[in-house]
Amino acid sequence: MIKKLCVVIILLQVVINYAKAQQDIYIMGIGSGIWLQDHKQANAHITIKTPFVHVFKNIHLWKPHLALGIGLGLTSYNVVLDETIGVDSMQHVNFQHNNINEVRKYKLNTTYLEVPVELRYRQNPVQHKHPFKVGIGARLCYLVSSHTKTKYYPSAPVSKTKGYDVQYLNDFTYGPQLRIGVGGIGLLAFYDMHGLFEEKHAATIRQCLLALCFNISFDKNKFKLPGIPVRPKSASLTRESDDKMN
What we know:
The chain has helices at 2-22, 235-245; strands spanning 25-37, 40-41, 46-62, 66-81, 83-87, 93-97, 103-122, 132-152, 160-164, 172-182, 185-191, 206-219, 222-224. The chain is mostly beta strands. It has 2 helices and 13 strands. It has one domain (2-245). It is elongated. The longest helix has 21 residues, at 2-22.
């Protein structure tokens, strides 16, 4: 797991440095989701909180309106359950109700390294102060870490336990995504088509995500939010700096 995380950190650092030089875009945010099984909600008593960050490179197809965005990023799913995850003697994943007298909170965390691809359209930013944006595409996700965390009531012998490398999770997943926004704020939706667990060991559970996202652009050496103008240097300051150099 440590090797995987080191590779992720190195890749993200390379992409971030490239983004700063090539006027790429950060997209970051936090969302909520549900589990679906047979197109129905799999567990009504769960809470999913999902922070994420993606870094994109734009390939302009029809400047400034149409572009192909290729990115790299991380998404972490934090799922609070009223059931614990176990494996029976037949190597099948099952969910067991928590002992309400002992277990206070049970959480499953899965973190994915992701490659999102989007076909992007936006209004001309010269004509629109807060241009409308839409991105339609898909993402490929690779599981880099997983763990469960159990918190107990004070009367229990231990306060909390952690279990790493949850069994029978799919290493890869994929699905379509849609992003719509105005200026630097938008909504993102993602639907997992492959499933959380391996099919032969568990029922097919798909994760669905709806998130609020923020776009941050890098324009050469200037950091700005889309739609917010950067104040130019005054002529007097420019002349003073030129005099100092001379």
